[in-house]
Amino acid sequence: MVGQSTREKIIQAAMELFWLKGYNSTSVADLLSRTQLNSGSLYHVFPSKQDVLIGVLEAYRDGIGQMLLEPAWGQVDDPIEKIFALLAYYRVGIVETDHTYGCPIGSLALELHEPDPAVRELLVQNFNAWIGAVRGCLDAAGDRLPAGIDREALAEFVLTTMEGGVMQARTYRDVGYFDRGVAQLRTYFDHLQERARVGA
Amino acid sequence: MVGQSTREKIIQAAMELFWLKGYNSTSVADLLSRTQLNSGSLYHVFPSKQDVLIGVLEAYRDGIGQMLLEPAWGQVDDPIEKIFALLAYYRVGIVETDHTYGCPIGSLALELHEPDPAVRELLVQNFNAWIGAVRGCLDAAGDRLPAGIDREALAEFVLTTMEGGVMQARTYRDVGYFDRGVAQLRTYFDHLQERARVGA
DNA sequence: ACGCGAGTTGATTGATCGTTCAAACAACAC
DNA sequence: GTGTTGTTTGAACGATCAATCAACTCGCGT
């Protein structure tokens, strides 16, 4: 981690600060003091604050494997358990942040009310990557799920469960809200697998 | 609607602006120009901008019946259909706002990263009121749902489905994401009702 | 007519916002 | 040593932010 470029330093600081404080509440001055850089250096690399945001969203998109899936999945092999391992990984985030955790992408998606098209497109790409990863698990589950099922929609529903659970856990400062949501999803998955087994 | 008090004017404008632009991105100047008031009048009624937010959250909390439940439920009687009618009402919001709709409470819950205790408490009360309304429907559904089921958790899960669906529909600018989430929830409810019917 | 207090006016404050840019600096080529 | 190119410095800019307050208006009781 030696010889980190100016760009990398800023992206790294911005990922943390946008996550902790949000985009609007993070000032350029915050980024500068965190990175020990001067404003000129930042604006030499990024034309504007929004371009920092774009860099951050690209980093999340490109790093979903290394930053999220690999640590979440460890040595979990079963495709359906991978989905719940992913949710369990978010649970760790909630607990470790004293129940202030917010999904970095979800929070930005709700905070930015009139996002630039480039920003919105990157939010979409981030959601797509997440849904795609879950979708891959569902595909790998093969005939353990009912044949005619809409796997894409089910993957979206897993994202919904995560985002809704994170939002409530944070508002209530209580992981229980996340856990109970995941438990509902588990019941739903059990039902789907049972339906596939009896071939309904 | 004649003789509206200064306080009511501000709350009304703030409800709309916080919803459209978010709390941080709405300036006091925005509120003043919308209400045609001067800053002194606002600060005569509210000690600070945050107190306007508190007033807004109280208005949502106290108005959930008139503003949300009554219009959503119309003449729907069936308790389970009331739940889906509530979700259908949010769908109208999504479509009518050209897919930029965000739940006023959910958006604030994610935007405010270090909320004042009073603000957080009001977010909790708003979620409680919403969950409580759904919970009431589930209770009214009686033995159409499995006996041992955690109705509170199921009500929370309905909120999760709404918030997650709204977030995705807005990000993708596509109601389909909301619709498919609701469809998953419907499948889940069908399963629960079937389980209650056969008495599993 | 007069006084009183609730409510309003709007210019002004100091802080902070994102952004700029002339000047200085560093590394390499010739 | 001299020129060139890419990078960094940090004071400064205008805009905007939430908030203030002395002065003023106006309805009402007496």
Please explain how this structure is put together.
2 copies of one chain form a homodimer. By secondary structure, chain A is mainly alpha-helical. Chain A is built from 10 helices and no strands. Chain A has helices at residues 6-21, 28-35, 39-45, 49-62, 64-73, 79-96, 104-111, 117-140, 151-172, 176-198. The model of chain A has no long low-confidence stretch (mean pLDDT 96). Chain A binds chain B through residues 20-22, 24-25, 100, 102, 106-107, 109-111, 113-114, 120, 123-124, 127, 150, 153-154, 156-157, 159-165, 167-168, 170-173, 177, 180-181, 183-184, 187-188, 191, and chain B through 20-22, 24-25, 100, 102, 106-107, 109-111, 113-114, 120, 123-124, 127, 150, 153-154, 156-157, 159-165, 167-168, 170-173, 177, 180-181, 183-184, 187-188, 191. The structure holds a DNA duplex (30 and 30 nucleotides).
Question: What is the helix content of chain A?
Answer: over 70%
SSE series of chain A: HHHHHHHHHH
Supply the number of helical segments of chain A: 10
End-to-end Cα distance of chain A: 54 Å
Class by helix and strand content of chain A? mainly alpha
* Main sheet overview of chain A: none
- Largest interface between protein chains, with number of residues from each side: A-B, 44 and 44 residues
Low-pLDDT residue spans of chain A: none
Report the principal-axis shape of chain A: elongated
The fraction of residues in strands of chain A falls at: under 5%
Radius of gyration of chain A: 19 Å
Please give the oligomerization state of what you see: homodimer
> Would you count the extended β strands of chain A for me?
0
pLDDT averaged over residues of chain A: 96
